[in-house]
# Entry
Amino acid sequence: QVQLVESGGGLVQPGGSLRLSCAASGFSLDYYALGWFRQAPGKEREAVACISSSDRYYADAVKGRFTISRDYRKNTVYLQMNSLKPEDTAVYYCVADRDKPNLPVGRNDYQFWGQGTQVTVSS
# Structure
């Protein structure tokens, strides 16, 4: 049974940093594409960063500030978020699906979702 459990969200001041973690169980990261999506109040859920065996994707809004990575030994995927802005405030979701030739970045491309973790950037 595939399960994704996020942690690491919280309240941070503008300019601060957070690292989100997503512990995966029921499958091996080796054969899956993984990603982070977010949804702010009143907005659609959007891809933030995705990673596969051969590619990475970052939304324009987070390029240069966020880094996605994965630890095969711990079966965990991370999202390091630096220089956070108030507009980064959202619920962040970890996602996974079978790896494909082209890195999926659409909301409907991912079958498995975590429960979400709240990130609030405010002074």
